[in-house]
Amino acid sequence: MKFLSTLIFAGVLLAATAYAQDTLTTAAPKTETIHGYLVDVMCGDGMVKKNNALEKAPQHTTECALSDNCAASGFGVFSGATYIKFDKQGNALAKSLLEKTKTEKGVMVNVTGARTGDMLAVSSIKEVHMKAMEKTPSKEKATDMKDMDHMH
User: pTM (2 decimals)?
Assistant: First the structure.
């Protein structure tokens, strides 16, 4: 019996040491802000499979995202052609945003959270309106356009 107790204790000690080493060597995910279109997982996965996210995400309707099956699947953001899914808190924040927005399609957001792979632990989500972005013309863009004319 004493041998069995010693063996169990040694096993627990070994497992604890291995866990501690793994925890120390694994870096915590960095917080980042991602800009893109808010899309439910059911439709987002379909866009990824069909490789047409850049075309479809801006056309995705708020009504669709809030429909029972789509909303139940969770939410994520398309940043370019990359789809990043939200954690449970992010899903709740996204649904709340969609319920309040007046935007009917192509809901663009800035989402902040800690990313691990294709999953984002969301800490905040804010809608971004394109009109607000268009109001501040950039002198750089004008310069870039002039430079492009000289290239031809």
Answer: 0.69
